[in-house]
Amino acid sequence: MSSPFEFSPVKLVYGGEALGFHAGHTVLAPRVLPGERVEVEEVRRQKGVVFARPLRILQPSAERIEPACPYFGRCGGCQYQHLPHAAQVAAKSEILRETLRRLGPVKWEQPIPTHSGPAWNYRNQAQLKIGKPPDGAPGLGFYEAESNRLIDIDACPILSPRLNELLAVLRAEPWISELANGREVELVVDDRDEKIMMTLAGSWDAEEAETLAQKCLTELAGVATVAFTQDVGVRVFGESYLSYRVGDFAYRIGPTAFFQSARFLLPEFVEAVTAEVSGAVAIDLYAGVGLFTLPLSNKFEQVMAVEVHPQSTANLAANARAVPGRKIRAIAGTTFDYLRRSAQMDPDLVVMDPPRTGVGVDTLKLLLALRPKRLHYVSCNPSTLARDLAYLLQQGYSLDSLELFDFFPQTFHVESLARLSRIGRERA
Fold it and tell me: Per residue in 196-223, is it b (16+ CB within 10 Å) or e — as a string?
């Protein structure tokens, strides 16, 4: 390990670190702010970049505040609690703009409207690890940053109040012993912060799982669904799905299905993705359980929704059937395979909400063969958004607007919405 050294970061970058320079090297360090003088030590070096750990703040930024959570700095969940929320949102906006410019290059000089809600108690989902911290006692909590060392926590200030109440019960006896055979428990709560779906991963046999499930359903307030993930699939007790309402629609969400895990901005988010559009055909790619599919059915004569995850696909089909008189076609499979099989249809709108890996050029080539008039690209990763937008702009599309949704305050995560249109589509 090299000797400690002093440096002053110049900006925050995607991932939560602050970037600066020392002795001809780029330095990245967490939990420090631009303009501060800090003492750090090198942790590792990768491709010429020095990853450092802060030791002392020699001269703090005027923006620095005291983190609200006692686990900040150890827990890997949050990166920005030392920065006021408004400053976090402003930083994320510039990170989005700079990442698009540097990696695209996509130059967006116009304002980026930002959407933000309450900065605390916003998560409707938690993946809690079960294990033994260094003291050897059973624990329930999160991993330390960049490690699999468990931090036993008594509360998490970004979780909803209902989830924190259940966490307090589960981490105490007798429940922590009941969970001792597990690796992880996932908790998802509904939009009213009342009903909870609980999914457990561990080494319970069939009889033990059923006994534990019935105990949870009977004795844990609010728990309506208990599921166990196993090699052969998912075994569910109690109600088969959680109902989550966003706007005019209630969505079925089954165990292991993906759904947005920040509760305050969802209605505003759905409205932004589906606003000011209508027509004959819309395609919803990476559709999940149908968060955008259902409201799109109010505006389009036909909506095709594509999803590959088995549980999400089942929920998507059920959610589509629950909308009376709508022409929604739920398609199970990958986006790539669906587009590969599709004939030219000139859809009015394509909504894309891919995972962090983005869409990718090979899939975009197939998509553009359909000649969509408009594209609404929802991204959770500015880096892959930059790559995909650069390709779309080269292929005859213009970037009409760019918005940021701060779904996850206190963290580095950036959710954005890019709206594009085909150049000359009116004459097409």
Answer: bbbbbbbebeeeebeebbeebbeebebb
How confident is the model over 312-332, as pLDDT tens digits?
A: 999 999 999 998 887 899 999
408 contacts 393 by C-beta, under 8 angstroms: no
Which region, left, alpha or beta, applies to residue 256 given φ > 0 means left and ψ of -120 to 50 means alpha?
left
Distance separating alpha carbons of residues 408 and 353, to the nearest angstrom:
17
Residues 6+ apart with CB under 8 A from 136: none
At the top level of CATH, which class does the domain 5-64 belong to?
A: mainly beta
Give the separation between CA 25 and CA 50, rounded to whole angstroms.
7
Q: Cα separation of 224 and 241, whole Å? A: 9
Given a contact cutoff of 8 angstroms between Cβ atoms, the answer to whether 374 and 348 are in contact is yes
Q: Compute the distance between CA of residue 48 and CA of residue 116 in angstroms, rounded to an integer.
A: 36
Q: What is the pLDDT of residues 18-36, one digit of tens each?
A: 999 999 999 999 999 999 9
Cβ–Cβ under 8 Å, residues 191 and 132: no
User: Where do the CATH 3.40.50.150 domains begin and end in the chain?
Assistant: 102-116+262-427
Instruction: Kindly report the pTM of this predicted structure.
Output: 0.94
Rg over CA atoms, the chain? 23
Q: Which CATH architecture has domain 102-116+262-427?
A: 3-Layer(aba) Sandwich (3.40)
CATH class of 125-242: mainly beta
- 223-274 per-position pLDDT tens digit: 999 999 987 789 999 999 999 999 999 999 999 999 999 999 999 999 999 9
Sheet order of strands, 223-230 included? 150-152, 139-143, 125-131, 182-189, 196-202, 223-230, 233-238
Is 168 strand, coil or helix?
Answer: helix
pLDDT digit string, tens, across residues 266-316: 999 999 999 989 999 999 999 999 999 999 999 999 999 999 999 999 999
Integer Cα distance of 56 and 304 in angstroms: 54
Residue limits of CATH 2.40.50.140 in the chain: 5-64
Q: In terms of Cα–Cα distance, which of 71, 69, 78, 200 is closest to 129? A: 200
**Residues, the chain, total?**
428
